[in-house]
Design a protein that fits this description.
mainly beta; 4-stranded antiparallel sheet; 1 helix; 32 strands; globular
Length: 392
């Protein structure tokens, strides 16, 4: 055999190994994205398993000119619906829009050109990214701050109230690399995650602490580990393991962190101590949101197919502020600091957040794909419009 032939065969074997490794990596990434897709199916409004990933002050709206509604959108697809800095946002498969809730004025609209658009909102900032792609942008309620691209596919992202962005991407050196960038795109932090692929990510309001959930398989079962860190740390400070449960969302309130699972809710204080609010396996998550006081509002059932639902309002200390069981079967939940509204069948039912005293009932439509509480008003997303729910 000639030297050239041996060299060519050696190179071909190396190429085959490289292609096999790449296929394995992409199968794993696909599994993570599938987990995220299932989460978003529950979230209904994330961006929701309902989020309202709301990140703004839902109490700003004092009056609404209902003659300005409905507001038309370019697509009937609902990728996300929520609030940003006292405004309503709608993310579709084609574009991103921010609407003044009082008068229906479109404050921001642009075509994103993302294959799989996902958004995270915190206060007045939103990071919009192409999950599985390279592109992302930082936006506020009136403009795009910047557009940028990563070197590796994006798994998930998070933004702080100060505009600091955290990105989890696939990695050449580990399974995932997390990087944190200032608003001027200076890299402030980089960390390689060897355990698994990151499926959920959060950053605190100042951009100095992060939490992330990494997913892997262990003994043919899904295993998720949540890690907590300061961005000045070399290694995680806290580590919390969940077998056969998925982490749907992570959210900071000061140094405390909400962990929302598909069948549990926990709170981690001071990055190190876990408080189990709803034990693993004790519930089935239906929908969740964060109110304008950054309390977690979670709707759940005791088992799949249950006719009744429960809603709990949880503080970041791990204490339950209020709770109500035997509510009508719930599709979604949304909340301001004082009002909780559930979408149930053909009704929107609003309750006082402190004691679940019923306040009002509004006619709802089966076509509602998302709801967002803003002060006493409920904004709804259906087909290719944003509208205001009316009492009739």
């Amino acid at each position: 055999m000639s030297t050239n032939q041996r060299e060519n065969e050696r190179k071909e074997k190396q190429n085959q190994k490289a292609r096999k490794k790449q296929r394995i990596i992409w199968f794993a990434i696909a599994a993570v994205i599938l987990v995220l897709a299932v989460m978003k199916l529950f979230e209904l409004d994330f961006s929701s398993i309902g989020n309202s990933i709301s990140g703004g002050d839902g109490s700003i709206v004092s009056s609404v000119s209902q003659s300005s509604y409905p507001v038309n959108l370019t697509s009937s697809d609902n990728a996300a619906f929520g609030s940003i800095s006292g405004n309503i946002y709608a993310l579709t498969d084609l574009d991103f829009s921010v609407v003044n809730p009082s008068n229906g004025e479109v404050k921001l609209n642009f075509e994103h050109r993302f294959a799989n658009p996902v958004i995270d909102v915190n206060g007045g900032y939103a990071v919009l990214y192409d999950q599985g792609g390279l592109a992302y942008s930082l936006n506020n309620a009136s403009e795009t701050v910047y557009n940028d691209k990563t070197d590796n596919p994006i798994l998930c992202a998070a933004v702080s109230q100060s505009g600091v962005v955290a990105l989890a991407t696939t990695s050449d050196n580990a399974k995932t690399t997390i990087r944190v960038y200032s608003r001027s795109l200076d890299e402030k932090f980089s960390f390689d995650v060897s355990f698994g692929y990151v499926s959920a990510l959060a950053i605190d309001s100042k951009g100095t602490r992060i939490a992330f959930a990494a997913v892997n398989s262990e003994n043919a079962k899904l295993k998720t580990v949540v890690y907590t860190m300061n961005i000045s740390d070399d290694e995680p400070r806290g580590q919390f393991e969940y077998s056969a449960s998925s982490v749907v969302d992570l959210q900071f309130d000061s140094s405390n962190i909400y962990i929302v699972g598909d069948d549990f809710v926990s709170v981690v204080t001071s990055l190190k101590k876990e408080h189990k609010v709803l034990e693993q396996g004790s519930m089935n998550l239906i929908s969740y949101c964060y109110d304008s006081s950054n309390r977690l509002v979670v709707a759940y059932s005791e088992f799949d197919g249950a006719n009744n639902s429960a809603v709990s309002v949880i503080k970041s200390s791990g204490k339950v502020y209020s709770s109500k069981s035997d509510l009508p079967e719930t599709r979604q939940v949304t909340a301001s600091s004082s009002i909780i509204t559930i979408l149930s069948g053909n009704e929107l039912i609003s309750y006082k957040a402190s004691d679940f005293e019923e306040k009002k009932r509004l006619i709802a439509s089966e076509s509602y794909s998302a709801i967002q509480q803003m002060s006493s008003k409920v904004f709804v997303r259906y087909q290719s419009v944003i509208d205001v729910a009316d009492a009739e």
